[in-house]
Write a structure and sequence with these properties.
The protein is mainly alpha-helical. Helix content is 81%, strand content 0%. The model has no long low-confidence stretch (mean pLDDT 94).
Length: 123
């Protein structure tokens, strides 16, 4: 484990995710410490910690790719992260609408339903 990369990843995760979500994610280290290290060090330490895009811009990319893949369990967590780093409800809705033209209405409709749940949970 590269401690500098891992610590940068932990810092990014603290900005993106609530303590509760991070605790849930940490369950991965009990199943596969190696995958956990890769997620934190590479996913958040290397990718999310780069300088050229803000965290909110990175979340737009992440939301789009998750919708494209139909990765709806992860989408819910990243919708919350997008709100945490400053994306507005209107911006998130617009991202989902824009995706409809590229990924199809079924995925966009499912994503919008999940977004509605997240918005409701956040008041």
């Amino acid at each position: 484990m590269d401690n500098e990369r891992f610590e940068a990843g932990k810092k990014a995760m603290e900005e993106l995710f609530s303590k509760e979500v991070r605790k849930g994610m940490e369950g991965m280290k009990d199943i596969s410490p190696d995958l956990w290290d890769m997620i934190v060090s590479f996913g958040f330490g290397d990718l999310y910690s780069r300088d050229s895009l803000s965290l909110s811009q990175r979340e737009i990319v992440t939301l789009t790719t998750l919708i494209t893949q139909g990765a709806f369990d992860q989408l819910k967590v990243h919708l919350q992260a997008a709100l945490n780093v400053g994306l507005s409800k209107e911006e998130i809705i617009e991202v989902i609408i824009h995706c409809a033209g590229y990924v199809g209405f079924p995925k966009a409709v499912q994503a919008m339903g999940i977004a509605g749940e997240v918005f409701k949970e956040n008041g």
